Amino acid sequence: MTKISENQEQEAAFLQTVANALGRDKPAGNAPSRKEAGPPVFWREQKFENEQPLEQFKANLENLTGKVMVVQNGQEATNQIRVWLKSLQAKTAMLWDHPELRKYIDVSQLGVKTSYWNADRPRKSLIETAEQADAGITWVNYAIGYTGTIALFNSGTTGRSVSLLPPTHIAVMKKTDIVPTMSTVMRDLLERRHQGSLPATVDFITGPSRTSDIEMDLSIGVHGPFRVWTIVIEE
Amino acid sequence: MSNRPSMHFRDRAVKALKDDQMRQAVRKAVDRLSSNKDKAAQELPNWEEWREQAYRIRKHTVENLDYYLSKLTENVRKAGGQVHFAQTAEDARTIISGLCEHYEAKQVVKSKSMVTEEIHLNPALEKVGIKVMETDLAEYILQLAGETPSHIIVPAIHKNRQQIAELFSKVAGEEIKSDTPSLTAFARKILRSSFMTADVGITGCNFAIAETGSVTLVTNEGNGRLTTSLPKVVITVMGMERMVPTFEDLEAVLSVLPRNATGQKLTSYISVLNGPRRDAETDGCEKFHLVIVDNGRSHILADEEYRQALHCIRCGACFNVCPVYRQIGGHAYGSVYGGPIGSVITPLLENDLAFWGELPYASTLCGACGGVCPVKIPLHDLLLKLRQRRIDAGHTHVFEKFAFGMWRRFFKMPSTYKFAMKAASIGQKPLVTNGYIQAQLPLLANWTNSRYLPAAADRTFRDIWEKRKNSR
After folding, report:
1. Which of B20, B369, B418, B446 has its Cβ near the most Cβ atoms within 10 Å?
2. Complex ipTM above 0.85?
3. The whole model's pTM is what?
4. Which of residues 212-231 of A touch B (CB under 8 A)?
5. Are strands A168-174 and A227-233 parallel, antiparallel or unpaired?
C-alpha cells in the first residue's frame, strides 16, 4: 500500500483558525505553563497498607463477576488453571509467549491443547486460533487495586487478541505487580515513552465485556470475554 | 451537521410527549444512570476536588488548543500514524471516504462515535459502495432501525426489547427471542464475523493525549478493542477539543468520566492506542490515521463566554438529570447532540440562532445540569444567555414581542403601571376562580393549558400602603 499524503495546506489553515479563535496571530510554539496537572494533590499523596492493593483488587474484581485466586507458586497456579479449564469443558487455550508465563505455567499439565502467540505463525492463523480458543491466558503488567483493573501491554509476543477473542480470559500476575491506583501505571508509561518503548496498545481491563443497551438490563459478554479470572502468585 | 428537522421544537416536543413507550423507557434509564452516578461519586473521596481538577485540565487544554494540537500531530506522526485536518463536515467525509477508497475498503466496522454522527459519515461511505457496520450494540440496533442516537451514552435508550427482537429477527430470517441474553448472543455472532473480515475500523476518540500522540477509547462492550485490533487500517475521528495534555491528566479525567456517565469506577475497557502496530506485532492495524474535525468548534472557541462549552467530556450526566430530557427524550431536540449540552452547542456549532436558537428553551433553568457536570460547565447560565442572544438578534416570536412591548409600555411609568393593575384587577373578574385565572385564553393558552395564572390582587400593594400611611 502506498502512503497517502497528508494535506499540509489544510493543516496550516486549521491550526491558524484555532490560533485566531484564541486571539493569537499564529499557533503557539512554546509549551504553556501549568499549575495543576493530573489527579488532585491528596490523591497523589495518599498512603496504602501493604495488603490493601490485593484486598481492594479482589473485592473490586469479584464485584464485577471476576475471580481472584491467590496461590503460592507456579505449580499451584498451573493446577488452578487446569481446574478452571476443566470446569469450562475447555479444549483449547492460547497463551501469551511471555517469559514469566513460561516460567510459572506448565502447559503440559493444563489438560487442553495449547498454543503460544508469537511470530512463528502468520497473522491470519494466529487470530483464527485465538478466535477459536476456549480461553486466552495472559501475564499482567499491572493490576490496580482501586478499580479492580488489569493493565496489559501488548507486543509481538503478547497479542491483543488473546485477552479479547476467547470467551474466557485468564490473567496471571505476581502479587508485587498489584499497585494501589492507576498513577503508578501512568508514570511507567511516561517513562517508557521517554525511552521510546511505549507499547502500541495498552489495555486497561476492568471485568468482563458488558452492555446495558437493551432496556438498561446488564448483559455480560457482548463482544469480549464473558469471564475474567485472575491468579495472583504470592511467591 | 445541518440536517434540519422539518418541524419546530415545540411540535417535536408535543409529538414526543405522546410516545408513552419512549417516555417510560427514558425515565427508567435516566433514573438508573443518575442513582448509579450518585453512588459512584460518593465512593471516590473528595468528589468536588476531582471535578475542580478535571475542570482545570480541560480549561487549560482548550485555552491552549493550538499548541496541544500541534504537539499531538507531531507525536502521532512520531508513532507512525498520519494526521488529517477537516475544517468542515464535508472535508471530514471527503478525507475519510478518500482513505477508504485508497485502501480499497469494501467493509468498514465502526465503534461508537458521536462525531461521525455529527459529520453524517455513514451515508457518505455507503454512497461510494462501502458497507458500514455499526458494532456498538445500541448503534447496531439503531442502524437496523434507521434511527439516530437519542442519548450520547445509551443511544438506543428509547427502544424496548420487543422492537429490538423484531429488528434482529428480520436480519436472522428467523425468530430471535426478546430476552437480553438471546439478543446479545445474536449480535455477538453477527458482529464478530464482521470484525474478522472488515478492511477498515473507524472509531471516535474519548481523549487524545498530546504528549504521546495516543488515542484513548473508553468502552464497555469491547467493540472498540475489536475495531482497533483486527482490521489492517484504523481511522480515528476526533472533535478537535477531545484531548488532554498528559497521561497524568488522563488518570484525572478517567476518574470522573465513567463515574458520571454510568456509575462505574472504570469502564470494562480503556484502550490507549499509540499509532499503528510495531514491526514485531501481528495483530493491530498496519496503518493508523487520525482525522481532527473542527466543524464549527472554532466558532465556540472564539467566543470567550461560550468557550467553556468545549470542556465537555461527553458523559451524558446532564441528560440524566434534566427534567425536560426526561419528558421528551433525545429525538425531540432534532439535533445530533441533545440534552442540555446539545442545546448549548448546537446553535453555536451551526452558527444559527434563528432555527437552533429554539433549543435553549428546552430547559426549566433548574440548574441540575450545571450541578452535575464533571467539568463544571455552567450549562443553565449558558442556556439563559443564548436566549438573550437570540432576542438581541431579533429572532423572537411576534406575539412575544408584542406582549413584552405592552409590558414595557405600562411598567415604565408609575401612572401607567397603576392604571394597568387596576384595569387587570377589574378586567380579569369573569376569568378568576379561587385566586387564579383558570379559563383557557386564546393568547395565553400555552400557559393556561398546563398551569393556572395567578390573578392580579383585588387591592394593589400601593393602595394598601397608601391607606396605612393615612391611618397612622
Report:
1. B369
2. yes
3. 0.94
4. 212-217, 219, 221-225
5. parallel
